[in-house]
Amino acid sequence: MIRSFAFAALVLLVAVPSAPVNADDDSMRGLIGSCVGCRMPKDLHGRDLHGLHFVGADFRDVDLSGANLRDTEFTGANLDGTRFDGADLRNAHFIGVHLRRTSFARANTDGVTFVGASVSQGDIDGPAGRIILRDCTGCSLKGLDLHDADLRGVKLVGASLSDAKLAGARLNDAHLVGVSAHDADLSRTDLRGANLVGASLRNARLAGATIGDAVLCTQNQGYRDGDGDRRTVCTDLRGVDLHGLDFRAARFCVHEARDANRTCRTVTRQELIDYGHADLTGAQAPA
Predict the structure, then answer these.
(1) Strand-by-strand arrangement of the 215-224 sheet
(2) 245 and 169 share a domain?
(3) Residues 6+ apart with CB under 8 A from 236
(4) CA distances from 195 to 41, 141, 154, 214, 220 (A)
(5) Are 237 and 277 within 8 A, CB to CB?
(6) pLDDT > 70: what percent of the chain?
(7) Are 218 and 254 in contact (CB under 8 A)?
């Protein structure tokens, strides 16, 4: 009942052309800011909604083109068909949102982050793909076709890439910490400079991949083993055929406490075996 009343009030407010623009925007902001789980009016283009937190809101097919959405947060929102064309989305955060046919054409997306978003193949293939994948922590990309994609520098920490088709993709300098890529096709990928610490590549296909100086291992600063030593964490390579791959430049990097810089060295063969569960038969491995 309350949601229905709030939605009716929003619709009436948007439809009144005679209200002063500033008062209209202030009233709109007040209603939207206090409305949880509401179905939003279809036309919100050009509105000043900066800094608001949209919780469980239904923005399906809503026009937000040209809107000021700087520093906004969309949590659990349905953004299927939403148009952000030309909107100011600087430092906006999208958490647990649904993205289908969502348009970000000409939008200012500096500092935009996605967390736990559900992404479709259509969005990845379209212009929005690069925006979404630029910083998509914990996002569901399971089974998506990203073959030959330019994914240099993307941040996909903790994302699900299981069964994803990434053959030939350029993943240089990508942040892939903690990703789940079980049974993914990573053949011919370029992983130079990528951070794969804690990633699970169980049964993935890596034939012809370039490992280069990818970061595969680290020491967890917060946990220690039974002997009091810092726990070593490496990329999980169980079940992966590593024949012909070159690991001689792969790195083991550690961030010291309160130090933004990291110290790196070449990972050892034994570390890859002990902590990465790697079968290095036929691979070029470090000492």
Answers:
(1) 230-234, 215-224, 251-255, 262-266
(2) yes
(3) 199, 200, 201, 202, 276, 277
(4) 42, 18, 11, 6, 14
(5) yes
(6) 84
(7) yes
Q: Is the pLDDT reported for residue 44 higher than 80?
A: yes
Neighbours of 181 (CB within 10 A): 27
Q: Does residue 110 lie in a domain region? A: yes
Residues 79 and 166 in one domain: no
Tell me which residue range forms the domain holding 57. Answer: 40-138
pLDDT per residue over 193-239, tens digit each?
999 999 999 999 999 999 999 999 998 765 555 555 668 999 999 99
Summarised one tens digit per residue, pLDDT across range 45-82 is 999 999 999 999 999 999 999 999 999 999 999 999 99
Evaluate whether 206 touches 247 at the Cβ level (below 8 Å): no
One domain for residues 167 and 76: no
Residue 18 lies in a domain: no
DSSP H/E element including 6: helix 2-15
Q: How far apart are CA 44 and CA 260, in angstroms?
A: 42
Kindly report the CATH number assigned to the domain that includes residue 272. 2.160.20
Neighbours of 65 (CB within 10 A): 19
